């Protein structure tokens, strides 16, 4: 039996230009490396009771933004990995992620339309220390009852800034 179908309409500037190699690079860096780290620790029982992993996701994992589909998908996959791994590795190990918004780094200098993006962050641009403080909390005993969570550290970007 022969199947046939017709695509009536599809449009994407960014996706049309992506190569499999580019997609794999983003997934390797953002997702697969974290999976392999968790796997290595679980297989070797390298994680002591009370161990904690914190992965860096992105506020973009929760948003739809043009030109960000693969990056956002890779970061959303991290959040899903965190939720599942938190259950799989409990109670010995906690697994969480941090979803930063725009942070003042060298990457910000080359960000197109950065003024527009900055305006979408009600509390302004974050600093590396903001992410470090969140990570320090999640890695500490103070967060002993926190696992499977993605902590938004985005200056209000996701909840109120996107225009």
Automatic annotation (TrEMBL):
One of its GO terms (molecular function) is oxidoreductase activity. It comes from the Bacteria. InterPro entries: NAD(P)-bd_dom_sf (IPR036291), SDR_fam (IPR002347). CDD domains: SDR_c. The keyword Manganese does not apply. The keyword Nucleotide-binding does not apply. Pfam families: adh_short_C2. Keywords: Oxidoreductase. Belongs to the short-chain dehydrogenases/reductases (SDR) family. This is SDR family oxidoreductase. It comes from Paenibacillus albidus.
